[in-house]
Structures are given as C-alpha cells and as structure tokens.
Amino acid sequence: MTYSSDTFYIEHLQYDDALHLNKLLVSNTERLKRFLPKTLAANRTLESTKSYIISKIEAMQSNTEFVFTIKDKYTRNIAGLVILKNLDWDKKQGEFAYCIGEKFEGKGWMSEAVKATSKYAIHTLGLTHLQIIAHKKNYSSVKVAEKSGFSWRKTLKSVFTPINESPIDMELYELRNEG
C-alpha cells in the first residue's frame, strides 16, 4: 500500500525504518505507554526494533498483521504508525491501532491515514468490518475514529489492562462495508 498527501505518505513498515521507528517510540514513551505497552516493549533498543520489524514483515507476508508507517514528506522521518491487527479472515474483520508522535499531533494526519488504510483494508484485502477500540478519555484516539468514519457501537467492559492498573472499559468503534 502506498498513499501520499501534500504533507505525508504511508507505506508498509520496512527494515530500513528501524532507526526512525525506534526514535519515534522512545521519544514518545511517556505518552504512548498506557495504550501501546507491547509495541513500546518490543522497541526499547535499536536491536529490538530491528527484530520487531522483521517479525512484522513476516506477519505482513503471512497476512496476519499489517504495519504501516506515516512519514513526513519533507524529512522522511516516521511520524506515526497504523497497525491492522486481530485479523479474522472468516469474518472479514480487522482492528486498527495507531500512534503519532507528539510534534505531529493535531494536524489531521492520523485521521487521513486511518481513512486511507481503511480503504486499503476494504478494497485490497477484502475486509468488511473494521474496528477501533479506544478508551473514552483518550480524546485524540476517539476523535480519529469518528473523523475516519467509524461509529461508536458499545462499551467493552474491563477488556484492557494497562501496566500496573486494574482492567478498564474500552469503547468499540466500527466501520462496516457490506458491499
């Protein structure tokens, strides 16, 4: 998948992205640690980021998960990630997770990126049900879901446990393409 706007572009995660991905995640650890603990844990060092990328490339090749980078068009640095995970090919369903670096937040890039990757998931991969699961107080994530055309469906009770916290409720947003 490739997508380009005036200010950023999207492409599949590549091995050459290791340094920029590691810098993005390490420099944004505090703001991402509550909702992306597994991704952060897998990218603490440059070497672990290289291993993470290899595993994600293998996952893309086996159609079990897709990781897309959002890159600043002028610096070519990674501004964020869109991850299509929890794929169920029988149900034609997948879930999005995403993050963006603090200096790129509030520019509308993530909403545009989720819209573009949703089109890819529907038209290229053949998925019909896309989901975003966000905490109601993660206002930025909720805003991205809504601006990307996803609709709130229901509250999922105690489905996510942040590190050193009790289980918390999350909100389910869906985008359906029935044909």
UniProtKB/TrEMBL annotation:
Highest taxon in the source lineage: Bacteria
Cited Pfam families: Acetyltransf_3 (PF13302)
GO molecular function terms attached to this record: acyltransferase activity, transferring groups other than amino-acyl groups
Gene3D superfamilies tied to this protein: 3.40.630.30
InterPro entries in UniProt: Acyl_CoA_acyltransferase, GNAT_dom, N-acetyltransferase
Family: Belongs to the acetyltransferase family. RimJ subfamily.
Protein name as it appears in the record: Ribosomal-protein-amino-adic N-acetyltransferase
